[in-house]
Amino acid sequence: MKRLVLFFLCLPWIVPFYGQELTEFDQLVKELQLDANVTDLSEVGDIRLDEPRLAYANLTGITYLPKTKNNIQKATLEVYDGAGHYFRKQILIHGQGGYTLRHPKINASFTFCEDDSDNTKIRFGNWVSQDGFHLKAFYTDFSRGIGEICYKMFAKIVEDRLPYWERGGYMNSSRARCFPDGFPCILYLNGQFFGIYAWQLKKSHKNMNMEKYAPTHIHLDGNLSDNNIFRGFISWSQFEVRNPQNLETALGQPYDNNHPSELKAGEVKSAILRLSSYYGELQALESMGASPDEIRARFEECFDLESLLDYVVFFYFTANGDGSLKNWQWFTYDGMKWMVTPYDLDQCLGLGIYGQVRGSNLPVENLTTGPFYWLNLYYQDEIRERWQQLRQSGVLSGTTLVPIAEDWCDRVGSYFYELERQRWPQSPCYCEPICNPNWQPYDQWDNYFAMPDYSIDTTYQAGDIVKLQGRLWQATGTTCGVEPFIRNAQPDSIQRLAAWIPDRIAFLDKEFGYHEETGIKQHAPNHHDDEIIAIYTLSGVRVETPSKGVYIVRYRNGSTRKVNFSR
Length: 567
What we know:
This protein is of the alpha+beta class.
């Protein structure tokens, strides 16, 4: 009798358990056997894992992803890394980004929040350890990871440089990158497929290798434009000081990154004022008749030349549509010399903000914001030389960069790309454009920047071409007051991207005068009658037989010139 009573007492729990349908996430775990021989790290505070090839995550405890930065919700996140590890953690999650929050599929930012808010940190691969991450949606991008692809490309470009902080005089070893990285993650919400996301590093002081309270370790983020900071006037509300983190406002209140305002007088404010004054100082040197060498010498005391050269070469290569006013990181380790790295690369490699695809022959629009104004005036040779150096080393080549994009897509796989297409069918990269009568797309990019913007008050005749939403449109008949399109979209694919990258490199080879065979005769045609008497490395060491790279060549007539050798 006792056994029978116990059976019926347990029955209400048994029936729902066996009658409950598996969620899509449960089915995924079962089909991929993600829980077989898995190590559960849910109770571990300091987790260290290799970078997942493809992670699988499920969010529960919320009914939707928060759509604003201020809507912070508590949720549970469970993750399989696909390599035998699992964890389940409490998190605080909110919307992340600017323009992208308008999309139906949005970015999110989360922080682990167990009983002790600092008790969970995770280090993936060679990343720094962090207590929170971003989940990037990339709604307009077919790969759902265009930014991560670009960060991995940028890492290739700067791998021959010293770490940023060492160039800034801060000699402290770190895994910091000073720009993000990410891996693909399949995200489920309450067990139902939600989309392909990129799990990405945050803009933390750790990833900048900065001391949290050091007054010379300054990291600026936001709308850092000529009008807001670089030309003598500072609009404190348009950008945030992310580091250091113990700041006060001019009114004596704690500094709030989400509502930035003018800083209290002190070392950090003085460094930012000094940055803003550099333009006027260099302009004054010019007006007083300073030589180019004198101007360059002062410029290189104010800005890290290597970081600017790498940024501008990468900017031109990727045709970055949103990296010249904001979405770049400016930082210093001594309060004097500033450097820059890219951020938010969702409008690169031909992809526009609205999902349209721009040609690989999109003209180079000179980057002249902030210190790039002076770089454009006084360092054209160095820009060309950096391009040529990266071409000769093989970094800037289709064989190096195309596999990065292909690898990302292979990691996600066709099965999840098809689920993504079904879940988000209106994503611009899946759709054809819909034009209004008397209009059609015009996908020739040679004269893009020379074309006029569309005006609702202008009468257009057949053949007229205008710019609107990052794309060219051609009138096919007389029209006035009717915008060219109902929907600006364009189907995209890895095949397009794999062709775009080498085509863009070939296009810029002409811009920067690079040829596969380089050497003295090509790079110094004006000196063909002069005898070379010595060759030096850039650090001044004389060599007899130069290998690949940039060297200083001295001629018998006393002149010198930097030359790229290819051997």
